[in-house]
Predict the structure.
Amino acid sequence: MSGSGGVIQLLLCALCTLLSLGQRGALPSGGGGPLNITLLFDSVSHGGHSLRNCSCASEIQDCNDALANLLCSCRTVPRSALPPAGLAVRGGLTVWVRDAWVLRELLNGSAVQDLRLSACGPAPFSAQPLTLFGLRRLRLHSASQDATHPEQTLNIATGQEQSRGRGGRPSSSSSSFSSSSSSSSPFLVSFLDVALLNGLSPLKAYSVSSPPTPILAQHFPHLPLAHTIPTQQPPEPLQDCLLTFIY
């Protein structure tokens, strides 16, 4: 049994290595769910300048480091090794945040389709924008005792998707926003106000259509529009953009 356990441990380590922080790959299609959930959190027990990178078969209770280390395959990544241009993650991504540097240095400019952000620390988060690409679903959790909105959800759908009946009626704790464009699927750019992690105000958002990415880049030269998750088909040269402001 000991030999079999060692082989299983090696396989888990190999899977965790493949899901490295700098991974680039195609987003999963809507037909099949992600095989794993990537969980990232700054761990006090592993040093204030490091990050735990875990691959989990299911969602873990928010902010429970011990449970994550027990049920997931985790490794420690030094802060100095984080990719400077943001992440590109397949499937679901969950990030537990205790310090604002995780948002600023890890997530800003990242490409992720399904994101859950959990505020685990007592310190309040100040208002500042977080830029995300390709975002389709956002879930926010606040562990603060003062939070009046501890759980909030946002679904972003294009006009074509909503016309097919995808994303049904939102509940009281969730919202759904869509573009009115009837052309091909737009390139999604989201701007999230980090202060929402305090859980003190209801999530609000609005989406606007913008010119194609080359024109948008002329007006926003510091926006890292080139950082996207590659797809199986090449991007359209004049692909429209959908800008979503979440506040």
Summary: The first strand starts at residue 37 and ends at 41. Residues 1-34, 165-172, 230-234 have pLDDT under 50 and may be disordered. DSSP finds five helices and 13 strands in the chain.
